[in-house]
Amino acid sequence: MNERFEQRLMQVQVRRDIKTLGDFTAIYCRGNHADRTRRAFASDAADLGAYGRKPPVVCDECAEHLRYGEKRRAYCPKDPKPFCAHCDTHCYKADESEWQRQMMRYSGPRSALHGYAIAGIRHAMEARTWRREMERRAAETSDGTTTGNDAAR
Ligand SMILES: [Zn+2]
Q1: CA of 64 to the centre of ligand 1 (A)
Q2: Concatenated DSSP letters for 57-88?
Q3: Residue 123's closest CA among 105, 138, 137, 135?
Q4: pLDDT at residue 24 is higher than 70
Q5: Most exposed among 19, 76, 82, 88, judged by the fewest C-beta atoms under 10 Å?
Q6: pLDDT interval class at 148 (50, 70, 90)
Q7: Tell me: the pLDDT tens digits for 61-91?
Q8: Angle at 76 between CA 88 and CA 94, to 5 degrees
Q9: Distance (Å) from CA 32 to ligand 1 centroid
């Protein structure tokens, strides 16, 4: 396993975000891929205990997306991590980004019903905070220039 990945996974914030991503992916998979073979998710983050003792149960396709997402989260160069939807660094490949968007759209509203109320509420609050922050910044810099963090990756 990559040493940097392991170090990142020591951070509470990183583990929490990855756990949430796993919970949301499991809700999505259960709702959309009930006809597929689904099993306990295996990955580097799972090995490091990011999902606790009960890793999310997902199909192979969702597992691939989730493995991609946990790496992106672990290697996010920004601290604190901005809310992904409002970040100026597009670290996700376009198709992964689209998959995650529609997955979150499905799972976000359902997360409370599945016992992930706290994760769901926190997610919604973070989204609102970031929307406000972006609006504030947009009001300050009307020319829309960004800080050019893409180069820092
Ligand atoms: Zn699935």
Answers
A1: 9
A2: EE-HHHHHHHHHHHHHHHT---SSPPPGGG-S
A3: 105
A4: yes
A5: 88
A6: very low
A7: 999 999 999 999 999 888 777 777 677 777 8
A8: 55
A9: 7
C-beta neighbour count of 73 within 10 angstroms:
23
38: amino acid identity, one letter? R
121 and 112 Cβ atoms separated by less than 8 Å: yes
Residue 100, classified by CB atoms within 10 Å of its CB into exposed (0-12), middle (13-18) or buried (19+), is buried
Please write the tens of the pLDDT for every residue from 99-113.
999 999 999 888 876
Cis status, amide bond into 55, omega within 30 of 0: no
Calculate how far, in angstroms, residue 149's C-alpha sits from the geometric centre of ligand 1: 33
Would you state the pLDDT for residue 4?
A: 92
How far is ligand 1, taken at its centre, from the CA of residue 92, in Å?
19
